[in-house]
Known about the structure:
Elements: E1 3-7, E2 11-18, E3 32-38, H1 40-50, E4 54-59, H2 67-76, E5 79-83, E6 94-100, E7 106-109, E8 133-136, H3 141-153, E9 158-162, H4 169-172, E10 178-182, H5 193-201, E11 207-212, E12 215-221, E13 224-228, H6 241-252, H7 258-272
Parallel strand pairs: 1-4, 1-8, 2-6, 4-5, 8-9, 9-10, 10-11
Antiparallel strand pairs: 2-3, 6-7, 11-12, 12-13
Helix pairs in contact: 1-6, 6-7
Amino acid sequence: xxxxxxxxxxxxxxxxxxxxxxxxxxxxxxxxxxxxxxxxxxxxxxxxxxxxxxxxxxxxxxxxxxxxxxxxxxxxxxxxxxxxxxxxxxxxxxxxxxxxxxxxxxxxxxxxxxxxxxxxxxxxxxxxxxxxxxxxxxxxxxxxxxxxxxxxxxxxxxxxxxxxxxxxxxxxxxxxxxxxxxxxxxxxxxxxxxxxxxxxxxxxxxxxxxxxxxxxxxxxxxxxxxxxxxxxxxxxxxxxxxxxxxxxxxxxxxxxxxxxxxxxxxxxxxxxxxxxxxxxxxx
Length: 283
């Protein structure tokens, strides 16, 4: 059993399954509906815990009544919460998500962590004690930078979830061991994949990944270029697949070589796409 620390966004996700996303002035009746805690680091933590590990999410939750839905969901999946602002009384960020039934594609409207940025003085003492791996999703940049620096000094591997470029990532990249980015990750002056690889490599990151949905995963590991084939499956819902991939990768990289960890994480993420919502694949 491993111990992982996941740093970033904690939201409340309201997820609907429907024929399509609504147009202006249109009302839709959903075919299904579910509620879960969300955010890239949060979903990754749930996946890591599901794979028989101990996971802690470090983010802003607060004490608003709505946070009870977040807390009960994470308690159900055995994810501990390290709250950066436990006395915050405003509502947590809420994401409303519509999954298109025929394609599994999702439309999302949400509030990110822009209004809930914590300072480094909020970091709990000894947060890295007995931790085997750290994942950062970029939504708590100051806290993430401080912890990444300490983790590097303690030889704890640091993974970043590069779903999209966020200002401040450049301060964290020097401490990163595994940069796992989507095709939407666009650092300054980077338009194509080779530029992304070159940019991340300039920070000394030894293992770099760019995912492309159902297309093969491209990676650069110790100057070796390779690809991993993604399983082709009937898709019900792609929501959270990237987050689930990151959580599974954090599990497998602690016992497998890099290509094997990517391949096994891709299998988990692909399997999750056959179920509606971000939790039912675990049942």
